[in-house]
Structure prediction request, 155 residues.
Amino acid sequence: MMYTEPFHVVLIEPEIPPNTGNIARLCGATCTVLHLVGKLGFSTDDRQLKRAGLDYWSEVEIHYWPDLAALRQRYPSARLVYTSKKALTSHARFTFRSGDFLVFGKETEGLPEQLIDDNPETSIRIPIFGKVRSLNLSTAAGIVLYEALRQTGRL
Prediction:
């Protein structure tokens, strides 16, 4: 088996409690570490958040960071993989490694465009067809995480 380190899902300033709750459940189901970065658009005691994560919230390793710089300082050798509809590389063509930090932006804005421009080699997108502009945050996290798990032999 190729697995050596857990994956990490990083949410930058998430705004919608059920999305974060669903992602927490996803992380619990896959032994993935969850990082919540910056100002949250809700309290982690929020009833909607707990309801979406049901009773799995306690099964998730969660870290809170004031900003992305603090997370980078704590994990200086981590590879951060940025997700954006503006990235050039499809998630299906990207080569994931165990231990990658999968970074997602807030629901209304995504990640800053400059972050994607500064990191083209580790920026990915999920292809979208038709007139839909974007996917739900928890759906996107599931798609990317399961592709990373597949590539690294965890499935």
Summary: The helical segments are 17-30, 47-53, 68-74, 113-118, 137-151. Strands lie at 8-12, 33-37, 62-65, 80-83, 89-90, 101-104, 123-125.
